[in-house]
Amino acid sequence: MKQCVIIGKANVGKTLFAINFASYLGISKLEIEFTTPGGEVYRRALPYGEALEELTSDQPHHTLGLQSINIKMPGFKGQKHFALVDTSGLTEGIHGESLVRKAMAQTLAQVRHAQVILHLIDAGSVGKVGTIRAMGEVDWQVAQFGGMRQGYAILVNKMDLEEARQGLVQVRQDFPGHLIIPISALQRLGFAEVKQFVWRHL
Ligand SMILES: Nc1nc2c(ncn2[C@@H]2O[C@H](COP(=O)(O)OP(=O)(O)OP(=O)(O)O)[C@@H](O)[C@H]2O)c(=O)[nH]1
Ligand SMILES: [Mg+2]
Questions:
Q1: Which residue among 6, 52, 57, 181 has the greatest number of ligand 1 atoms within 8 angstroms of its CB, and so is best to mutate?
Q2: For residue 135, is pLDDT > 70?
Q3: By CB neighbour count within 10 A (0-12 exposed, 13-18 middle, 19+ buried), where does 151 fall?
Q4: Gap from CA of 4 to ligand 1 centroid (Å)
Q5: How far apart are the C-alpha atoms of 168 and 63, rounded to whole Å?
Q6: Is 87's C-beta closer than 6 angstroms to any atom of ligand 1?
Q7: How far is CA 31 from CA 25, 37, 48, 135, 157, in A?
Q8: What is the pLDDT of residue 121?
Q9: 9 CB within 6 A, ligand 1
Q10: 2-201 topology per CATH
Q11: Is the pTM higher than 0.85?
């Protein structure tokens, strides 16, 4: 099956985006396939509210493993079937916990199979720093890799926050030449544009 993989640093809103985007595309009960960093696979069905409660957190590295949701996306001409894959957050440097390191390796391996890569950046935190270096080497490297591919977009998240506006300006300066879509995973802003992008590249 074709894959749309959500990637980015820890705590940028990948899981909230995955759940709310699936809901936006008409999925009310989420059938999620979990793959642990060790490769164990299991499935769970979660109602929307429970998924939010259980799978998102303000603490980084809440997601450890892959969480894949099968989506039939309705569109202009029929529908397209794909897996929306939420991944573990990336960090700068080598993380102290081996499970987090393993989960990061799993994330990077998964990206290679993707038709679409949605790279989330937290605009709220970018606003607090000045430069790409301060924002992080990881985002830079993901963009370098993604830039060589067709279905790559940067989603600048948390645009509902006041400080995010400056963050968006900064991301636009630091990542020229990439498609950049401002979104709020929380308020579902920018989702129509993301849907159009995903549709085009599947
Ligand atoms: N205000 C605001 N908060 C958001 C938004 N998206 C995510 N958050 C919050 O940011 C925190 C992290 O969200 P998650 O979706 O768990 O982040 P993640 O990228 O999956 O994090 P890891 O799984 O740890 O890598 C949570 O407290 C979310 O409620 C947004 O668009 N606006
Ligand atoms: Mg997560």
A1: 57
A2: no
A3: buried
A4: 19
A5: 25
A6: no
A7: 14, 19, 10, 34, 24
A8: 96
A9: no
A10: Rossmann fold (3.40.50)
A11: yes
What 8-state DSSP symbol labels residue 88? P
Sign of the CA dihedral with 113 first, then 153, 178, and 104 last: negative
- For 138-181, write each residue's pLDDT tens digit: 999 999 999 899 999 999 999 999 989 999 999 999 999 999 99
Helix and strand numbers, DSSP H then E, in the chain: 8, 8
Query: Residue 66 has what DSSP assignment?
Result: E
Which tens digit of pLDDT belongs to each residue from 23-74? 999 998 899 999 999 999 999 999 999 999 999 999 999 999 999 999 999 8
Nearest-angstrom CA–CA distance, 133 and 66: 28
- From residue 49, alpha-carbon distances to 45, 88, 161 in Å are 12, 21, 22
Query: Counting beta carbons within 10 angstroms of the beta carbon of residue 188, is it exposed (0 to 12), middle (13 to 18) or buried (19 or more)?
Result: middle
Return the ∠ at Cα 170 (arms to 87 and 147), rounded to 5°. Answer: 50
Which residues, in sequence order, are bridge partners of residue 41? 35
